[in-house]
Sequence to fold (483 residues):
Amino acid sequence: MNKINWNFDNTYFNLSKSFRESINPTPVKDPKIVLLNNNLAKSLNLDFSKINDNELSEIFSGNSLPTGSNSIAQAYAGHQFGHFTMLGDGRAILLGEHVSSSNKKYDIQFKGTGKTAFSRNGDGRAALGPMLREYIISEAMHALNIPTTRSLAVVKTGELVQREKALQGAILTRVASSHIRVGTFQYIAARQKEDELKTLLDYTIDRHYPDIKNSNNQALDLLNILIERQCDLVVNWMRVGFIHGVMNTDNMTVSGETIDYGPCAFMDTYDPKTVFSSIDQTGRYAYCNQPAITKWNLARFAECLVPFFEKDQKKAIKIATETINTFEKKYEEKWMNMMRDKLGLFGLDDKDKSLILDLLTWMHEKKVDYTNTFCHLMKLAPKENKLFEDNEFKIWKKKWEERLLKNNNTLNKSIELMKSNNPVVIPRNHKIEEALEAAEQNDLEPINKILEILENPYDNQGEITDYQFPSKSNEKYQTFCGT
Ligand code: AMP
Ligand code: MG
Fold:
């Protein structure tokens, strides 16, 4: 069955059996397609023109499996809130790697397809709301130019899943450049079989970083690349106010893509301690802790690679430690440059850091919206806000304007730079909730509208004011894990 142009390879399946369980999705009763990402499909060379909705629903529910796929649940481990656990795909199944016409491999994974060997006490299923939420936010991240897994389809299963109450079941098709996680390395390292670890290392380099294939210290090169990639990623999250919410090592990819949109959300009012996840009581994964946690996770990755750095273990650990400790300096530099871009500052100036910190402190103290402050500076504020008439802000703004014009710069050039770094619209929590509630009742208009708006987050589109503000209600927004 291959009417849509799937072109599967199964390189991960072909690795050692220790890496996965061979398993098919559990069929569902009455699948109905809810969302289909035609733009993404096009870029994957998939063709939906010869197929009807019924057949699409059968395909994207896993009821009818494409020829050429060898479906598996991948094994991995992870530090969850700091505690090491053996995990694996408890509710997801990897069909294989779809190879596009440009010869690029994409993991095609179904999420919510039933129990696997790694399900522990879970039912292997997913509910409609959280799958649609992942679809919206992952696609928004992509449009924000932030590396991420993507969403190709959501199908309702026609079955109920039991959570706090019974909810409509759903399956999401997730597309990723791979699903290899820091936790995948941890799983294999914990088995203490160096040949398996070498297999995973070689596979990862082959698939993601072929440029270092001939280097004489591949493992160290890989660690350095990952530090770079994850540093870039977290700086991007900080740029748009994204809070991942569950940065466990099993939710960090070696490709550098954002993965696992469970309890994530975007910050409205600027507060570095912002946490949305109901179970993150200590704020381990709060906005301001994301860089430090990234470094912590990278250190867990480095531990797995120690045997490859150097034969002498002591020396190898020293190399790992020194390499990991380059993170802070890299982060600081990248963060400063990102903030300079957000503020339209060209070149460097000694006072840049205090200029940036003064603005953030002001936003924090006066409880100002993060995204809309930069919109105000770009003269694209969705609505005038009295907060910007504040004296302290006016004094800051004057200093900023003076700094802008340094290095032969013009205001126009600065605004252009700012426009490609500051979104005018982000996925606001209450608008997502509205869209999900309507979709629950079969009304797909709001979800299609929000998806359309979020496709161009840097464009000042027509009537979108409603999407540019947080909810007026003071109720604290909460997100949940394991939905
Ligand atoms: P997450 O918090 O989504 O990163 O998931 C952590 C682990 O729990 C992964 O191994 C998931 O596969 C597993 N998991 C989450 N929800 C379920 C479920 N409903 N059934 C089985 N396993 C689950
Ligand atoms: Mg996960």
